[in-house]
Amino acid sequence: MSALEKSMHLGRLPSRPPLPGSGGSQSGAKMRMGPGRKRDFSPVPWSQYFESMEDVEVENETGKDTFRVYKSGSEGPVLLLLHGGGHSALSWAVFTAAIISRVQCRIVALDLRGHGETKVRNSEDLSAETMAKDVGNVVEAMYGDLPPPIMLIGHSMGGAIAVHTASSNLVPSLLGLCMIDVVEGTAMDALNSMQNFLRGRPKTFKSLENAIEWSVKSGQIRNLESARVSMVGQVKQCEGITSPEGSKSIVEGIIEEEEEDEEGSESVNKRKKEDDMETKKDHPYTWRIELAKTEKYWDGWFRGLSNLFLSCPIPKLLLLAGVDRLDKDLTIGQMQGKFQMQVLPQCGHAVHEDAPDKVAEAVATFLIRHRFAEPIGGFQW
């Protein structure tokens, strides 16, 4: 298995190669349905899984930033959920319903900066340090000086941010830490392949249904129920022709054409506008974040992550899609009993979406074993 196939890095890579025909520039619109009953790819609202939604304001030197959170539960420890790169808090929707039915806890699923519905002044700063500070600031804004007991749970990039947050003591009431399918060794190995992977994805989708269908058939999310709620947080409607990027490309086209033939510039410009409008009309949805542009931060998310994780002086849980993901430091740490580990086979990289019940069971068992939470509904751990 190649490093790309093993990797877990921006919250996107499936643990197996995409299905034939799913990784090129074609969108899910060109995929053919298999025999049998047609599946429902229509989007589902967040309110079917979370109890409430809140925009948390955080003040800083440059003004106010607003972080979107989705919440459930009213008693017990807070499980603060951090999504993978390119995903959003909605990737935790089905898991939230599953964990709430097993243990007494509160859920706070956060849209990290640059993702989902969070609005910050500098959305391009996705450094581990900045995002870890964001997590601490959101906790402070929500709970003040006396936050409740909190367990950080992060998937992929979010797992790395959870570790950076914990190791920097940015959450004073932290009682536990969970990383889902993120390991420094395989993450660092796969970074060189990430750009090729991102280039292979469709750039646009003709509808939300089309995006949901692609996510399932490509293997990015193997659970249709989760895809129907979480893909809404990954894509957005294309911006109009007056967007800065659109204007820039048109201006450059005008300049180049005027140098060659001034008389033809107007018609060329008109054709560019018409082509652009046609593309947006046919495929009105695109990715909310251009992950390829975040490359300069990838190394900082993952380098040194294993030792940071092992050095956090709190109970720790590592959930993996395959045992082959363990690197040397974590293998030694696991043999020394420094953290609990569980492998959930037959999952893609988005473990908490592909097998939300299994992940909920593992987290619930961890919480009860350490007496952080009480079981409910007759849950047997």
Description:
By secondary structure, the protein is an alpha/beta fold. Strand 3 (78-82), helix 2 and strand 4 form a beta-alpha-beta unit. Mean pLDDT is 82; it is low at 1-34 and 241-265. Helix 3 (128-143) crosses helix 4 (157-167), helix 4 crosses helix 11 (305-311) and helix 5 (184-199) packs antiparallel against helix 10 (295-302). The protein is built from 14 helices and eleven strands. It has a domain at 46-201 and 295-375: 3-Layer(aba) Sandwich (Rossmann fold). The longest helix is centred in the last third of the chain and has 18 residues, at 265-282. It is globular and about 55 Å long.
List keywords for this structure.
381 residues, alpha/beta, Rossmann fold, three-stranded antiparallel sheet, 39% helix, globular, disordered N terminus
CATH topology of the domain at 46-201 and 295-375: Rossmann fold
Q: What best-fitting shape do the alpha-carbon axes yield?
A: globular
Strand order of the largest sheet: 1-2-4-3-5-6-10-11
Question: By helix and strand content, what is the structural category?
Answer: alpha/beta
